Amino acid sequence: MTTDLTATPSQLTPAQAWRRLREGNDRFVSGNSAHPNQDASRRQSLAGQQNPFAVIFGCSDSRLAAEIIFDVGLGDVFVVRTAGHVIDDAVLGSLEYSVAVLNVPLIIVLGHDSCGAVSATVDAFETGAMPPGFIRDLVERITPSVITAHRNGVQDVNGNVVEHVQQTTQRLVDASKIISAAVDGGRTAVIGATYRLAEGKAEMVSGFGAL
């Protein structure tokens, strides 16, 4: 069964929102993208309001264009991006806005293989040499995930990416009372997913809430 592409966020459960994104990703992987909600009439209908059905908090990598890989269009997803999907106060505020004001039923933390930010953190952890400028701030925020991965015997970059996605989803729920309350109330789910650049496939690796 496929999800109704015209359904509004208030009509979608967290599980239905995730199904809708999975179906879009399947179309993208197979080369059969539908490119929904990308015409002039859709643009005009959104001029006064937005009603996204999911939030995608992902890495800033240019190969990780959320609307393309999930085959969605204008107004469908609320997107927040930082290198290595690093959390700061602005990110938390943006995600809380999506839940408290836009009533979005699903937050996805999206990482990807061969992530440069995670690779830089692994290198810093192994060599002790920190990168310059504010890149160091990114590395410092990712380091706890790398430490946990190495403690569990995971040393390859992609394994560290998975750990970092899992750690990020956990931190979102732990750090935000607004998000955790929405998860506990069944209104929102938070999941972590990793994206394979060559294949184009996104797969869930962690989750909080009813799916």
UniProtKB/TrEMBL annotation:
Signal peptide span: none
Keyword Zinc included in the entry's annotation: yes
Keyword Zinc included in the entry's annotation: yes
Gene3D superfamilies named among the record's database cross-references: Carbonic anhydrase (3.40.1050.10)
Catalytic activity: hydrogencarbonate + H(+) = CO2 + H2O
Note describing how the cofactor binds: Binds 1 zinc ion per subunit.
GO biological process, one term: carbon utilization
EC number: 4.2.1.1
Pfam families: Pro_CA
MF (Gene Ontology): carbonate dehydratase activity; zinc ion binding
UniProt binding sites for Zn(2+): C59, D61, H112, C115
Matching PANTHER family: CARBONIC ANHYDRASE, CARBONIC ANHYDRASE 2
Described purpose of this protein according to its UniProt entry: Catalyzes the reversible hydration of carbon dioxide to form bicarbonate.
Protein name: carbonic anhydrase
UniProt organism field: Zafaria cholistanensis
